[in-house]
Amino acid sequence: MAYEVTATRRRPQAFDALAGQEFVAETLKNTIESKKIAHAYLFSGPRGCGKTSTARILAKALNCGNGPSATPCGKCSHCIEISKGISPDVIEIDGASNTSVNDVRQIKEEVLFPPQSSRYKIYIIDEVHMLSTSAFNALLKTIEEPPEYAVFIFATTELQKVPATIKSRCQQFNFRLVPIDTVEKLLADAAAEIGIKADEEALYWVARESTGSVRDAYTLFDQVAAFSGDHITFEKIRDKLGLVGVDSLNVIFEDCASGRSREALLKLDEFLQNGISIEQFIANSTDYLRSILLIKNGITKESLLGQSHERFSMTVLNSWNPIQIERAISIFLQLYKDIRFSLSPRYELELAVSRLSWLSEYVSPVEVKVAIDQARNILLGSQAAMQQSSRPVQGAQNGANLAFLMNPTAWQQNPTPRTQAVPPQPLKPSKPLPVLDALKNLPEYRNATSVTENAASAPNPSPENPDQPAPNPIPPASQNSAQPTNQFPPASQNFAQSTNSVPPASQNFAQPTNSVPPASQNSAQPTNPVPPASQNFAQSTNPVQGEWGSAAAAVEIGRGEDFEKIPEDRIQKFVIDALSVRDEILAALFMNTRAWKKSPGKVTFEVGSEFDRVSFASSRNKILDAFGKIFSAPVDFEAVLRKVEVVDLSENAPPAVKLLCETFRGSVVGVTDSAGEQVPAASEPAQNAESARGEEADSGFEEEFAPEDIMPDDD
Ligand SMILES: [Zn+2]
C-alpha cells in the first residue's frame, strides 16, 4: 500500500471523530436529524482544525445512500466517492485560485443543473475570503435563492474578510484551535496505529509546536517519526526542533534569579552554539516564565503548564515575586517583537538575560506606593497609638504594619494588596528589600535600623510550619479600609481605591455580604491567613457581625427598611450590606467611613481623605438614589473630612520614614500641615474644580474617577 501522510490517513470520517470541535459536530448532527438543512454554511477558524473535513462529512451526511443521516455509512458509493474527492455532485473549489467573477458565474450556471446521482449538489468553497468583491456579489443572488438541491459550504480562515452580506445568509460555525492535550492524544493514537513507541513528553512538544492545528501536528509528527526510528523520544526531537527543555531553562533561569549574570550569559552561548535559534529560545523562555507565573498563582494544572509543576525550579519560584515574573514575561514578549528590527538579535537576547539577572532588585511603582503608604501609616499611626491607649488593637495593627514593612520576606511575598493565591510549595525567604542608597548616606541611618529591629519584634507571625503556605502577616491595605475604626486610613484607603476600584473578593466575602454567620470568616482564613492580632482586631470591631450575618437579615436588605428604626450604631453596616449586593464600588466607599450620626432624614459620617470626600460628592445622586431604595423614605447624607492629628514629621520619625515622606510629599492627599490647613495635592488644577463638579453628578462611577476629576470639594 502506498505511503499516506498521517494527516490524510487520519482525516476524520464522521462527526464523532472531529477532535476539539464537539460543539460544531453536535449542532450539525442536530440540523441533519431534524431535517433543517440550510442552503449555505460558513465554517471559520484557524487552519488545520477540521473545516474541510467537516465539510466533507456534512456532504456525506447529506448524500449518503442511507441518508440524509447524521451518521453516514461510509460504505455506499456516494460516501466512498466523497471520501476520495471524486463525487460528481460534490464540487470542491479553492477560493484562493478561483477568485474572479467569471469563476463564480460558472458556478452560477452549473448550479442550475440538478445533481447527477445524489440527493444534493454540494459546493465546498475553501478560502472563500479570497474571492473578489464582484465575485461575492455574483454569488450573493445564488445563495439567496438557490435551487432546492443546492448546498454551499464556505470555509475561511479569515472571517473578517467575508462580507457581511454573505455571512448573514449563511449558518455560521466557528472552529476553535484544538487543545494541546487533545492533539497529544491524537498523536499517541497515530503512533500506536503505525507501531511506533512515542514518549509522552515528545508528543507533548510536537502538539505544542503545532499550536492547536491538528494538520500541522500530523505533519510534524511524520517528520519526527521519519528520523526517530521506532521510538520517538524528547531528546531526539529536542535536537531536531531546536527546543529548549524545561530542565535547561531551569538552569539558566536559576542563574538569572540568583543574580549570576556571567553564568547565565555563558549558558545562553552554549545553547546558541548547539544550534538553538534565538526565536525558539525566546518562545520557550516565555512559555517557561508563563508557567512560573501560573504556578506562583497556585495553578498546577498539567495541561496548562505542559508538564508537572514539580519540574519547575524552586529557586526561580522562590526568588521572584509575581510582579517580577510579570516583568520578566513582558521583557521577553517585547524582545520577540524587537529582534525583527534589531542590529543583532543575539545582542538583544543577551541584554534581556542580563536584565533578568538583576530582576530580583526590581521594585515596581505599585510596590513603592505600598511602601510609602505603609511608611506613612507607621509614622502617623504610631503617634496615634500612643495617644489613644483606649484602642489597644489599633496599636497591634500598626505593629503588624511596621513588621510588614520591615520584614523583607513578607514584603516580597505580598507586594500588592490584591488577594493572591499561594503557590503550593513552601516558599523560602526571598532577597531582602532593596535599600535606597540615599538612606545609607543619612548619618542617622544606623539609628533607623535599630528602630526597625525593635519593630520587627512586634507581632510578626513567621512561618511556623514550613508546609503551610506563606502567611500573610498583614491584612491587605484594602482590608484595613474595611475597618470603620481604623485610625489613620487615608493612605491605604487611597491605595485601595485608586488601584482596585472593586473591593477584593475576600473582603466581600468576609464583611459586606454577611449572608452567613461569622463562621465564614474562619473559612476564609486558610486561603488568606491573617495574623492573630489583626484577626482579633477585625472581630472586636465588629461586635454585631453575628446579627448582621444572619440569613434573616440578608433577606431584609434593600426592602425599604424604616430608616428611623435602625439603631444609629448599625446604620453603616446596614448600608454596606445593602449596597454590597447592588453596587460593590459604592459599598467599598462606605467601608472607609466612620463615626456615623443619624438625624431625622439625614446621616452624617466622617471620611478619612479628601479623595473619599470627593468620591462621595461626585456619587451623590447615585447614593441618594440607593438610599431611597434601601430605606423607606429619602435620606440625605453628609460626608465630613475627619480631622487628622497633626504630626511633626521633623521631630519623631525615624530618618528612613522621614525621607520617604518628604521625597513623596507631592502625592500624599489628606494630610494637614502644622497650621491645620489642607496640604493641596500636587496636581490640583484649582481652576477646573467648579466645572468638573458640576458635570460629574450623574455620570458613571468609573468616569468620575478619572484622575483629573479628583480634587477637593469646597462646600
Ligand atoms: Zn453512505
TrEMBL record:
GO terms for molecular function: ATP binding; DNA binding; DNA-directed DNA polymerase activity; metal ion binding. Gene3D superfamilies: 1.10.8.60, 1.20.272.10, P-loop containing nucleotide triphosphate hydrolases. It catalyses: DNA(n) + a 2'-deoxyribonucleoside 5'-triphosphate = DNA(n+1) + diphosphate. The keyword Transferase applies. Its EC number is 2.7.7.7. Residues 411-435, 449-543, 675-715 are annotated as: Disordered. Residues 483-543 have a biased composition (Polar residues). GO terms for cellular component: DNA polymerase III complex. It is an enzyme of class 2 (transferase). Residues 423-432, 460-476 have a biased composition (Pro residues). It comes from the Bacteria. Keywords: ATP-binding, DNA replication, DNA-directed DNA polymerase, Metal-binding, Nucleotide-binding, Nucleotidyltransferase, Transferase, Zinc. The keyword Cell membrane does not apply. DNA polymerase III is a complex, multichain enzyme responsible for most of the replicative synthesis in bacteria. This DNA polymerase also exhibits 3' to 5' exonuclease activity. This is DNA polymerase III subunit gamma/tau. It comes from Treponema saccharophilum DSM 2985. The lineage of its organism: Bacteria, Pseudomonadati, Spirochaetota, Spirochaetia, Spirochaetales.
